[in-house]
Amino acid sequence: MSIDSAQRSDKYFTLLVPATGGLFVRDSSKSPTWQNLTPIVPAGETVIAATIVDQGEPPSNDVHISILTSDGQVFQSACVVTGMYTWPGNCGPFVNNTPPNN
């Protein structure tokens, strides 16, 4: 189980990996505020920890989500959070960023 948060302009995001599994983001600008990201987790992977961070200086339009899986792999995705967007369709596929010799 893990929790992390980030802010981008006037939007606040909380990322949650509940003890029951899955991956969820709370987006202060959406209703309902909690959105399920579990469908975009790589197939066969179980998330045990996750982080979310604002991409950085403007004109950044996205946040980055990194996940750690139960088998020690690290994946990252970028999700657009400007304009009209819908979770999880605003996120790109998770890319494997596992360090060598893992």
Automatic annotation (TrEMBL):
This is Uncharacterized protein. It comes from the Bacteria.
